[in-house]
Amino acid sequence: MDAAAAALAAAPAAGVPPPGAAAGEQQAAPRVERLSAGVQQQLNLEGMRARAVGLYKAISRILEDFDVIARTNPSASPKWQDVLGQFSMVSMELFNIVEDIKNVSKVFVVYPRNVNAENATILPVMLSSKLLPEMEVEETTKREQLLSGITNLPVPTQIEKLKVRIDMIGSACETAEKVIAECRKSYGLGTRQGTNLGPTLDKAQAAKIQEQEGLLRAAVNYGEGLRVPGDQRQPQSLPSHLIEVLPLGDGAQNFGDSSGSYPKNTSTFAPNNVNNQGNQVQASGGQLHGRPAPSPGTTGTPNFENVSTPPMPYANSPRSGTNMMNTPSPQQHLTPQQQRQKLMQASQQQQLHAQQLRPSAAGMLAQSALPQLQDLQGQTQQKLQVPGQQQMQYNQALSQQFHNRQMQSGRMQPGMAQSQLNQGTQLRSHLGQFTGAANSAMFSAAQASSNSQMMANIPGSQSLMPQMQYGMAGGHPQRSHPQMLTDQMFGMGATNSSMMGMQQQQQGVYGNMQAGAQNMQQGMVGLQNQTQNPNFTQQRQQNQL
Amino acid sequence: MECVVQGIIETQHVEALEVLLHGLSGVPKERVRVHELCLKSGPNLGVVPSEVRLLCDLAQPTPSWTIRHVGGAMRGAGAEQISVLVRTIVESKASKNVLHYFYTLGYKLDHELLKIGFAFRFHRGAQIIVTVTSTNKMPRLHATDEAVPVTPGIQLVEITAPAAADNYNDVVSAVSAFCEYLAPLLHLSKPGHSTGIVATAGAAAASLMSSGGGKTL
Q: Per the database entry, which stretches of residues form a coiled coil (chain B) (predicted)?
């Protein structure tokens, strides 16, 4: 039905222009407006109309059949085959009609896509290209004005006359334009072009702004230009919102470039011990061995010798050597007080950096330094406790260090002050964490073990005991603690030569020890050749363990 | 996820921009004073350092902390055709211990900055947040009272809109449409792309700041 209506609507629409043309003819203007002949022929309005009507009749016939069947026999169904056949014919006819209309559709400015009952009535008006009556009147009057007086002339003449008119108007416009521009200049109103373009930035300004923009964008998005160098990173005062957030103290300041500061702190203490020559170093070594009986429960200050160097799996790792070498410092004569303060500071700082500590042992080592001084003379048994433990704990590598330390401590004077002891403590720190840890573990073990047990493990120690009375209080216990010195010696493997030099200054008693040291330098193999020194005997036992 | 565009505006025109934004959004402006700390993870947390930003909102009576992790931006041919940057973002409120917590984890402070300005939050096709701030740096660590602007004459305008993976197209179009309203005053682009300033911004700003009564010619 819609298709039929569309076809019918199209037919009357096409029919409008011809009547309009006819009406136009009746008017005064001699213009005839109608569809061009070609379009008319193609459109074939009469034929189109006939086809549309035929289609309409066919569809209505089909619908009637349905009605009849529905009325007479509601239960029966129509013969669908026939109905479908008729429907296909109808649809084919509609398709043909639409196709024919499409061929001429480009003549019309607008044509309907979808026609239904709503817009069927208005379509003729919309399809019409005829001017509205008032528009038509307007056009005719204008034409009258334009062509008045020349309409009787031939057309080319009319064209020429119109051209002349256009030129005159053009020249009038140009002069008017000039006058306006001069007036603008004289009155300072600016040129027309200037106001149109708007303000422009000169190049320098634009470049400056671009540079600033780059800075700003980089700062916001990537943080360029906002990174403060490390030396300025100590906040003097925190704003209110950070005061309670950040814990006080330097330890809380975690900065990306602070990693370099850590080893520096540790190194400042080591050189005190490495470069100390003569009595101080040796005494310290001796003092260290003099404290096999650490005071119990001293875990307050962590011994930074455990903290100072990163954990090493073996005492003979290259680090141990370099630690000793890298730590030279001009400070050689620190008072005990200063050394202790430095020790405290270093330990605090290092405490904040994750290190493997053996806190109990570390505490013991640090705290035991002082008390051991006092116990030095009389605590033979305690000193002997240590080697017993050492046997259980030390490997070949440690034994070398122990010997080295042994030689150092040979010169220990009983009267050496705390300074030596502290230096010794600091010296030990650089022999490697493992050694320090081992030492501390050793000391802790020494605490627990009984004297008698220790004595039994040291077959050769008893013979050494009388030597203590010679005034070399530090030397003897160190001999009986081969392993304690071993690890430290090994750490100072590179400095053995210097130690040797020192020891040569020693008097007599340690001749065999020097030989032992030389053997140590050559490796553990040589130790077995040292029969003179009971220490080496112990070492051999340990090596075989 | 969020859609974000950035632009710059000269400080002298910020007031005009505020007037424009107020008119477009219809909401009052909010003060912005944020102390942003950018932390980078240490080597113990992986080979590739990750970055997390802690924002402390100082405009409130009690400072509130927010953790913000900026993820990677959308890439590909489709992303290049879109005029805004779409990137993953994770934000979370946190207690004031968050800074200490991250330090303990091993994060180190990379840089910090202070943003002072105002912001407008409104809904126009999508939830949109326009922030106009002056970015300041601190000469000494955490010295927020001594902050100086990184670029005194230029302020940053940032338009962000939260989005989800399934609706980011709508959000993108909403943001783009809104950005066109700001065209007289500033150019907006993806972060990282330079735009320059609008040459005629002065005239636009002047018209915005005019008393508002109709002028007869």
A: none
Q: A435 with A427: CB under 8 angstroms?
A: no
Is A379 within a domain? no
What pLDDT digit, counting tens, does each position of A305-315 carry?
Answer: 444 444 444 44
Domain, as residue range, for A69: 35-112+121-129
The per-residue pLDDT for range A69-81, each reduced to its tens digit, is: 888 887 777 788 8
Helix (H, G, I), strand (E, B) or coil at A210: helix
Cβ of A219 and B113 within 8 Å?
yes
Distance separating alpha carbons of residues B111 and B149, to the nearest angstrom: 15
CA A389 to chain centre: 50
Residue A274, φ and ψ in degrees, nearest 5: -70, -45
Based on the domain organization, do A40 and A107 belong to the same domain? Answer: yes
Which of B100, B115, B135, B150 should be substituted to probe chain A, the one whose Cβ sees the most A Cβ atoms within 10 Å? Answer: B150
d(CA A13, CA A110): 12
CB-CB: which of B103, B154, B191 is closest to A254? Answer: B103
- Predicted TM-score (pTM) of this structure: 0.40
Domain final residue pick, A192, A207, A238:
A192
Of residues A408, A415, A422, A425, the one with CA closest to residue A505: A408
Question: Which token pair is A427?
Answer: 């010296």
B217 located within any domain? no
CB contact under 8 Å between B194 and A201, yes or no, is no
Which residues of chain B neighbour A220 with C-beta distances below 8 Å? 6, 113, 135, 156, 191
ipTM for this prediction: 0.88
